[in-house]
């Protein structure tokens, strides 16, 4: 397996994976929209995406968005998206993508990595806890839909 920081050269592979990721969350397929969304993130350097290949076949990705902690006065990263193709799951690819994201956060002098997941996504929660993520119990998160 090879993991690399994605560039526009990987846009076609990322688009396919991103559309499958959105399908996992029951969103309608939109390859053109996915392509434009990812292209904008990469061109504007608004996110960092790592893509995993198995024998040159794209099998997964992780996408990080920058954030900042005012109290610690440090950068932080939001792990917003993690996806591994169905036929490649339970083979360690997700874990390797997560560890790559954590190493990258450390290399950028970040405070840490924050992620959220659906309460019903037990397999993901198990993986996150296995590699050291802790469930937040001290804060409530609120969201306003616009």
From TrEMBL:
Pfam annotation, one family: Acetyltransf_1
SUPFAM superfamilies found in the cross-reference section: Acyl-CoA N-acyltransferases (Nat)
Q: Which residues form the N-acetyltransferase domain?
A: 1-146
Q: List the Gene3D superfamilies hit by this protein, alphabetically.
A: 3.40.630.30
Q: Looking at the record's lineage, which domain of life comes first?
A: Bacteria
User: CDD domains per the record?
Assistant: NAT_SF (cd04301)
InterPro entries from the xrefs? Acyl_CoA_acyltransferase, GNAT_dom
Q: What is this protein called?
A: Ribosomal protein S18 acetylase RimI-like enzyme
Supply the source organism for this entry.
Answer: Peribacillus huizhouensis
């Amino acid at each position: 397996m090879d993991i690399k920081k994605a560039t526009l050269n990987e846009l076609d592979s990322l688009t396919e994976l991103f559309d499958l990721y959105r399908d996992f969350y029951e969103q309608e397929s939109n390859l053109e929209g996915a392509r434009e969304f990812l292209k904008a993130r990469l061109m504007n350097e608004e996110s960092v995406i790592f893509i995993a290949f198995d024998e040159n076949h794209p099998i997964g990705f992780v996408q990080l968005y920058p954030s900042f902690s005012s109290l610690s006065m440090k950068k932080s990263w939001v792990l917003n998206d993690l996806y591994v193709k169905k036929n490649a799951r339970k083979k360690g690819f997700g874990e390797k993508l997560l560890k790559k994201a954590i190493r990258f956060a450390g290399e950028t002098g970040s405070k840490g990595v924050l992620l959220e997941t659906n309460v019903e996504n037990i397999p993901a929660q198990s993986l996150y806890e296995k590699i050291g993520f802790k469930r937040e119990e001290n804060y409530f998160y609120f969201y306003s839909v616009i």
